[in-house]
Design a protein that fits this description.
The chain is of the alpha+beta class. Helix content is about 40%, strand content about 15%. A hairpin with a 5-residue loop joins strand 6 and strand 7.
């Protein structure tokens, strides 16, 4: 019989203190709730042999498939600015790596699979609600064209986990290009174990950036991570996404969005928006995400300094020079993303103010982030849209902006209808709105998965409007707004 998974293992070839060998703890009554067939095909998984029963057993960790070699990875990290020398996979277990049909290597990890050496006070488990949230939002980001970890399966465990209140347990099968985080580097840097730090850097380069093997590989690595994160966070900003827990242990080295906790898309535009209710100070608010990623990258740069040469001062200035490039990368990426959103391909200096003035209007008028950009196309197509007419406070200001925008569009030398069509392929109509996620979770906890599945279908084609699914595209009514996401993950 063909094996279900063709696992290989490279991370576990690193020294033993990089991880703990540990098996998932079996659960009482595993049930496969969702299986991502498309992703499983991409990963060359023999999905014909995965029926509900087998899937439940495998993706709960109750049955370890042939070739699996489970490990929990060690890492450290700065959480809300404070250093924690040992975090690690406290409730996640990497069961193996797969080579996908594009030739790239992916980690397959069970999240919520029981205690490990890194669990500290935790129970090693995940409630089903946050598992569903991660599945939906990570897949949504993927289909919106952002780099993200993916989700292969959801299993309910048949067990209760204790959070604010007792709730159903769940396990997510997460797929990542790797689970190496800034915090993984910090783990060895803190211990002044520069030999292991170098091993980790070499492994990272080999796995993700083999093109850097020759000259100054570590400086290239630092610069590459800076570039990847600058482009990723600019993309988050362009879709109104708030990650919510941008700790250094939740910042991936390969530039994927990772660790979906109190994350959400905003409805009404508010630069200071935060969803996580433990983030009192707004450290991880929408508008702070650029600054925070630079802070995280500076922690990564510290870890790389010992690898840049014998002389500390010279190495430090090399690292600082790399970091100094971040603001330019970030602003360029941000501008490129936002230009595309309003139909601009050419670059003019005035674009920065034009875009920022639109954001000011969106803030003053409490416009819905997603619908603002979607309706700009309608205006170009001269389709009926009352979006910019209803409940407006400052009509003059908006009309003024439209005039400036129209003037600027003329410099594109392109038909307005063509511009509008391109904008429709960039500005989604369907994002997983927070109130819909919450209501899907609520129904799912009552064993009704229909809304969750409907939402999962729509986010696969986020740019194609379907008349039938109006509810999923409109902002919440005041009584439906969910402004906090539970942190009880
Ligand atoms: P997170 O907030 O999910 O990024 O997790 C931060 C750290 O806490 C990581 O080391 C996790 O493995 C650990 N952790 C989170 N939840 C649990 C849990 N329920 N049991 C054990 N460890 C946990
Ligand atoms: Mg984490």
């Amino acid at each position: 019989m063909k094996k279900i998974f063709n696992f290989s293992h490279t991370y576990s070839k690193l020294p033993p203190f990089f991880y703990q060998k540990i098996k998932p703890q079996p659960v009482k009554n595993p049930k496969l709730i969702e299986f991502n067939l498309e992703l499983s095909k991409f990963l060359n998984i023999n999905s014909n042999d995965i029926d509900k029963k087998v899937g439940g057993l495998i993706f709960s960790g109750n049955h370890l498939p042939d070739g699996a070699q489970p490990i929990a990875m060690a890492y450290a990290g700065h959480q809300f600015g404070n250093f924690v020398p040992q975090l690690g996979d406290g409730r996640a277990i990497l069961i193996g790596e797969l080579i996908a049909s594009n030739g790239k290597r992916f980690d397959i990890q069970l999240k919520g699979s029981g205690k490990t050496a890194f669990s500290r006070q935790g129970d090693g488990r995940s409630p089903l609600g946050p598992v569903i949230r991660e599945y939906i939002v990570s897949e949504a980001l993927h289909y919106l064209g952002l780099r993200s970890t993916r989700s292969l399966a959801i299993v309910s465990t048949g067990e209760t986990v204790l959070r604010e209140t007792p709730t159903k347990g769940g396990i997510l099968t997460r797929v990542a290009s790797s689970h190496i985080r800034i915090g993984t580097f910090e783990f060895f840097f803190f211990q002044k174990d520069f030999k292991s730090l170098k091993k980790l850097a070499d492994y990272t380069i080999n796995r993700h950036f083999p093109e850097f093997k020759k000259n100054n590989p570590y400086e290239f690595l630092l610069e590459k991570v800076i570039k990847l994160q600058a482009s990723l966070v600019a993309k988050w900003m362009s879709i109104g996404f708030i990650h919510g827990v941008m700790n250094t242990d939740n910042t991936s080295i390969c530039g994927e969005t990772i660790d979906y906790g109190p994350c959400a898309f905003m409805d009404q535009y508010d630069p200071n928006k935060v969803f996580s209710y433990i983030d009192y100070a707004g450290r991880y608010s929408y508008v702070n995400q650029g600054k925070i990623i630079l802070w995280n990258l500076s922690k990564f740069a510290e870890c790389i300094i010992p690898l840049l040469g014998e002389n500390f001062e010279t190495s430090k200035s090399k690292a600082i020079n790399c970091l100094k490039k971040f603001p330019r990368y970030f602003e360029e990426n941000w501008l490129d993303e936002m230009r595309k959103k309003i139909g601009l391909e050419k670059k003019f200096k005035e674009d920065f103010n034009l875009i920022n003035d639109l954001f000011k209007i969106m803030k003053n008028e409490n416009f819905d982030f997603t619908l603002t950009f979607r309706n700009l196309s309608k205006i170009l197509l001269e389709e009926k849209s009352t979006f910019f007419e209803k409940n407006i406070n400052n009509v003059k200001e908006i009309n003024n902006w439209f005039t400036r925008w129209n003037k600027r569009l003329q410099k594109e030398n392109n038909q307005k209808s063509d511009i509008a069509k391109k904008m429709m392929k960039i500005n989604p109509i369907y994002i997983p709105r927070n109130h819909i996620i919450e209501s899907s979770i609520k129904s799912a906890l009552d064993n009704d998965f229909s809304e969750m599945r409907e939402l999962l279908k729509l986010i696969k084609n986020p740019f194609t409007e379907k008349t039938k699914n109006k509810k999923f595209s409109i902002p919440p009514k005041p009584n439906e707004v969910v402004s906090n996401t539970f942190c009880g993950t």
